[in-house]
């Protein structure tokens, strides 16, 4: 709907990189569809495009890690937003260490949190993953968060 597109065009919000792993296979992509849904228990919703490699891995996975990025981490965002795990191994192109349940935690993220996937379901061209947060770390306060307006000209690895 054109009028809704016009409204979303004026929105700006933080971007995240979401990683996951299943049977030793890691995946991750740049995500804008993401929001906290509960304070107690702490829960967060992540929207993954059903076209993405990350969605196909996440569907079989038990856990997601959500990374908060500083605006300076734009090249990390580009890696996860413009390339697809269908073609490249993103995890040989960035530095990371195994986090909870072995899911990659990216070294450059200024903060991250993780949790078990409580449920997921398809609600259109994206599927929503509800995460029950059980671990989190702030490494440094971002001087400025990476926003949609910083990455709006990226060419996504998969069309939504
Ligand atoms: C501005 C922007 C916002 C995006 N938001 C999302 C999102 O909310 N959910 C998602 O699954 N992909 C989103 N993407 C697309 C993926 O990050 C992109 O297609 C990525 O290359 C997919 O990688 P994969 O196939 O390895 O999972 C976004 C991309 C851009 C450039």
Put the structure in a nutshell:
With 160 residues, this protein is of the alpha+beta class.
Describe, in plain words, how this protein is organized in 3D.
The structure is a single chain. By secondary structure, the chain is α+β, with helices and mostly antiparallel strands. It has one domain: Pnp Oxidase, Chain A (Roll), CATH 2.30.110. The protein is 17% helix and 39% strand. It contains 4 helices and 9 strands. Strands 2-1-5-8-9-4-3 form a 7-stranded antiparallel sheet. Strand 8 and strand 9 form a beta hairpin. The longest helix is centred in the middle third of the chain and has 9 residues, at 74-82. The protein is globular and about 45 Å long. The relative contact order is 0.25. The mean pLDDT is 97. Flavin mononucleotide is lined by residues 27, 29-33, 47-49, 52-54, 81-86, 148, 151-152, 154, 156-158. Flavin mononucleotide (FMN) is lined by residues 27, 29-33, 47-49, 52-54, 81-86, 148, 151-152, 154, 156-158.
């Amino acid at each position: 709907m054109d009028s809704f597109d016009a409204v979303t065009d004026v929105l700006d919000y933080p971007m995240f990189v979401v990683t996951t792993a299943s049977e030793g296979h890691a995946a991750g992509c740049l995500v804008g569809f993401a929001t906290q849904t509960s304070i107690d228990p702490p829960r967060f919703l992540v929207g993954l495009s059903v076209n993405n490699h990350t969605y196909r891995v996440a569907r079989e996975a038990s856990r997601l890690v959500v990374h908060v990025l500083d605006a300076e981490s734009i090249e990390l965002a580009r890696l996860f937003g413009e390339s697809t795990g269908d073609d490249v191994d993103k995890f040989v192109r960035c530095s990371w260490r195994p986090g909870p349940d072995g899911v990659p935690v990216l070294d450059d993220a200024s903060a991250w949190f993780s949790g078990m996937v409580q449920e997921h379901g398809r609600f259109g061209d994206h599927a929503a993953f509800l995460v029950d947060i059980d671990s989190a770390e702030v490494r440094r306060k971002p001087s400025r968060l990476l926003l949609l307006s910083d990455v709006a000209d990226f060419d996504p690895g998969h069309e939504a």
